[in-house]
Amino acid sequence: MVLGELSGCMEVTEDVVSQSSPQLRAAGGSGNIILKTPKGTRDFNPKQMAIRENIFTTIISCFKRHGAVAIDTPVFERKEILLENYGEDSKLVYDLKDQGGELLSLRYDLTDFDIAGQYDPMIPDAECLKVMHEILSSLQFGDFLIRVNHRRILNGIFTVCGVSETKFESVCSTLDKLGKMTWEEVKNEMVKEKGISPETVDHIGEYVQLNGGLCLIEKLLHDPKLADSRLAMEGLQDMKLLFEYLTLFGIIDKISLDLSLARGLDYYCGVIYEAVLLHQQDGHLKESLRVGSVAAGGRYDGLVASFDPKGRKVPCVGVSIGVERIFAIIEQNTEEKIRTSETQVLVAAAQRNFLAGRMKLISELWDAGIKAEMFYKKNPKLLNQLQYCEETGIPLVAIIGQQELSEGVVRLRDVTTRKEIIVPKDKLIEEIKRRLEK
């Protein structure tokens, strides 16, 4: 087999098995090759890469289905730009310097789907949630719930509860920890570290511990305290419209308005959301706190202006998929054998001294666009070649020998059924493609 990577290629014979980072173990070897990697990074073995490729294929397929076009951006940015928008989450940013000494930071590793432009309210936001729902459903790694909220609703709640506007972002950052901390712990941090009075925090708690659907939205729209907040009313009207669109998209059963959701990043200005995994507890589905969110996003209308020298605003809403968390969950729960290559045919020899014949045949298959392999030995045993196909899931074996050569034919073996047919050599590619199409 051949292992490839972005920066180069490494050829490994069938006798070498790649294990998970940081070790590579060679079969029959006397020790391990220790590969050191920077803190926070890792290598991926073929099985892990097969899982990751399936995740990315699923995500990209969904993005394209919704009309997305691809862009790429640098992995690092000027530090001051990131810190302007990350608020108290700036501790999550890794720092470095460029050759001129300018301070840079690595951006988050995100898989983004964004809709940018001036559109009617909540239509792009609803599609982002639809994209999130499609991807998480397709990956089939567990039941999930998409929690949604609105920063205007939160800011309205803070206002009617007596929080000064200068402390909105700070309170949001603390509230965002509620999924990892109890309400009492969050309350304690707000009081002792953020300087919010206990009475004010208790008032906030009356709202942020609520969750539900359209009925909750209607109840909040008629709340006499929130009625005094223009921001809260605007946010609730947005949410009512959003829930109507999500009902039309057929995903409302996976959506919950959760007033505790804060998304601590400073640049969010409207709808915010995140998807969490659920697990069974006492016969009921509960949020799996140990996993955290597996996808998240929201509206960030003012962010683009901070990058534009003229300060032009571009309304934006987006969703990011938590590939690393999803990968870890799928890897942990995957027990069945996974194909680590897409090889369709193994070119094999039935007897000795047929390396030249195998090389000519495999070259013809490659030129025809067929994914093919052969053993990197002059005289491999046929049994070993057939066993390799069964172990790796290669569906077909093209077998040549002296008799096949003299008759101008190739033996084509179905690895699953172990049945063989004789195919004229000039019809081999046609027959292989016909079988692969099935």
Automatic annotation (TrEMBL):
Residues annotated as domain Class II Histidinyl-tRNA synthetase (HisRS)-like catalytic core: 40-111, 125-326
Enzyme class: ligase
InterPro entries found in the cross-reference section: aa-tRNA-synth_II/BPL/LPL (IPR045864), Anticodon-bd (IPR004154), Anticodon-bd_dom_sf (IPR036621), HisRS-like_core (IPR041715), HisRS/HisZ (IPR004516), HisRS_anticodon (IPR033656)
EC number: 6.1.1.21
Keywords, alphabetical: Aminoacyl-tRNA synthetase, ATP-binding, Ligase, Nucleotide-binding, Protein biosynthesis
Domain Anticodon-binding: 344-434
One protein family per Pfam: HGTP_anticodon
Reactions that this protein is recorded to catalyse: tRNA(His) + L-histidine + ATP = L-histidyl-tRNA(His) + AMP + diphosphate + H(+)
PANTHER family xref list: HISTIDINE--TRNA LIGASE, HISTIDYL-TRNA SYNTHETASE
Protein family per UniProt: Belongs to the class-II aminoacyl-tRNA synthetase family.
Name of this chain's protein: histidine--tRNA ligase
Native species: Phrynosoma platyrhinos (Desert horned lizard)
